[in-house]
Design a protein that fits this description.
The chain contains 11 helices and 19 strands. The chain is α+β, with helices and mostly antiparallel strands. It folds into 4 domains: about 170 residues, Nucleotidyltransferase, domain 5, CATH 3.30.420.380; about 100 residues, 2-Layer Sandwich (Nucleotidyltransferase, domain 5); about 80 residues; about 100 residues, Alpha-Beta Plaits (2-Layer Sandwich), CATH 3.30.70. Strand 17 and strand 18 form a beta hairpin.
Length: about 475
């Protein structure tokens, strides 16, 4: 916990204040008279603030109040929420007032039967008055310590053996605070007794005797010494020693006027018996965190709205650009289709040209027909001509007859003319490879219906191949 800079003590109506600034300067104030209750606590705080001028806003306070009780309770070996529920049941059973209670627990010396804790029980309504008064003065109450918690811190400064118990008695205003414990700082009893040694010494001695007897009965250990702390303690050492029949000594802790106020800041935080709950102590931090979180959320909201707006503007621009690109793409797609059609038409024409130019078969029939005008003698009449491509060669079939003649030997003229023709075909530029040659013999024509039937001996038939 952050060290408070504004320290207070309220000891059964006696009010003191102390402020420590950052340079270490100490300003203290002892309010005259008694503060009977907490009704006008904010006014008292304002007056203390004027006297001490504290720099800090956190308040730590040591309290001794008639309605603040202290009880040692036995607890099972539990922790966490389970132990808290057990202690809450003890508080509900032990409180002597109506309404909710503010409570805190400190480690205590184990009893004969089990572990134990020292409970500090105080009305929550009075705690609320204190916190409200601090809030009205612009302060925050973060520490409310019972005097028994402060006084028990003296136990580990006493000259005690390991298992030895001691009674520490301190004057706290109009009452007396007592604790019984060992050198480890754990108490087996803590309470506030009415009266003090300056006015009611005999009555106080009786209460102390009863307190010692009760503590010894509960703990099973013996109280071996008594230690006095406070103003006027030296004057009552002998009288109390005679009444208690125990060694009575002065506490080694120096008794200074603002001891209780100082301890509000100096007492270690761990197991200090603080009656201000952790939730209340951390409330300002939670509020600051919530405020910071809210600011961050607002900033993020504004940033998100700006971002959303920017994105919306960009999106509209992108949408227009996309529409423009879509139109351009559609136009280009149409152009592409047209060009693809043109290209297809061009490819077909190019293929046709290629076929015509590159794959056109040589005009052998025409050439051969032209050559026949030279190869066929005038005495022969060509009646049939067939030139057909077969694989890598040209099949040629020729048929004809003799021309009418006045020669006395037409058969001889016919044979000579046919022989000359076949010789020219075989040796000419086409090198016709004659497979069949029929001259002057009866041959059946099958090439065409018009020529069907038998030929006479003045006809010829030549078949061959041009390679």
């Amino acid at each position: 916990m952050e060290k408070p800079l504004f320290c207070l003590s309220w000891l059964n109506g006696q009010f003191k204040a102390m402020a420590v600034d950052r340079s270490g300067a100490v300003r203290s104030w002892d309010r005259p008279g008694l503060v009977a209750d907490f009704t006008n606590f904010s006014t008292v705080l304002a007056e203390a603030g004027q006297k001490t001028r504290p720099e800090g806003k956190q308040v730590a306070m040591v309290l001794a109040h008639p309605r603040l009780s202290h009880q040692v309770v036995e607890v099972p070996p539990a922790k966490g929420r389970t132990l808290e529920r057990i202690l809450q049941r003890h508080v509900d059973r032990l409180k002597t007032f109506e309404g909710p209670a503010a409570w805190a627990a400190q480690p205590a010396t184990p009893t004969k039967n089990s572990n134990a804790l020292l409970l500090h029980i105080f009305p929550q309504s009075l705690v609320n008055e204190l916190t409200s008064g601090c809030k009205q003065a612009g302060l925050q109450l973060v520490r409310l310590l019972p005097t028994t918690a402060v006084l028990s811190s003296q136990l580990n400064q006493l000259s005690l053996e390991k298992d030895e118990l001691a009674l520490v008695v301190a004057e706290t205003g109009s009452a007396t605070t007592v604790v019984i414990g060992g050198s480890d700082g754990r108490v087996c009893l803590g309470r506030v007794l009415r009266g003090h040694w300056n006015q009611q010494l005999d009555s106080l001695a009786v209460d102390l005797t009863r307190t010692i007897g009760f503590a010894e009965q509960q703990s099973g250990r013996v109280v071996s010494s008594v230690w006095l702390f406070g103003v006027g303690a030296q004057a009552h050492v002998s009288a109390l020693q005679s009444a208690l029949h125990l060694p009575v000594k002065l506490s080694p802790v120096p008794c200074i006027p603002f001891y209780w106020v100082e301890q509000a800041a100096k007492l270690p935080d761990q197991d200090d018996g603080n009656l201000i709950s952790l939730e209340v102590r951390e409330a300002p931090q939670r509020r600051r965190l919530i405020t910071a979180t809210g600011l961050i959320l607002i900033i993020l909201l504004i940033a998100s709205l700006v971002t959303a707006g920017s994105i919306a503007v960009l999106r509209r621009g992108w949408s227009k650009e996309i529409e423009k690109q879509d139109r351009e793409m559609a136009r280009l797609q149409g152009e592409k289709t047209k060009w693809q059609q043109r290209y297809g038409e061009f490819a077909r024409k190019r293929e046709l040209v290629r076929i015509v130019l590159d794959e056109k078969p040589p005009p052998v029939p025409a050439w051969f027909l032209g050559y026949l005008s030279e190869a066929v003698p005038e005495d022969l009449l060509l009646t049939e001509l067939l030139v057909v491509r077969t694989n890598e060669a040209w099949f040629v079939k020729m048929a004809g007859t003799a021309q009418p003649t006045t020669n006395a030997s037409p058969a001889l003229v016919f044979r000579q003319a046919a022989a000359s023709m076949t010789n020219r075909l075989a040796t000419g530029p086409f090198h016709l490879n004659i497979n069949r040659s029929v001259i002057g013999e009866s041959v059946e024509r099958t090439s065409s219906p018009s020529s069907a039937g038998k030929v006479t001996n003045d006809t010829f038939l030549v078949e061959g191949v041009i390679r």
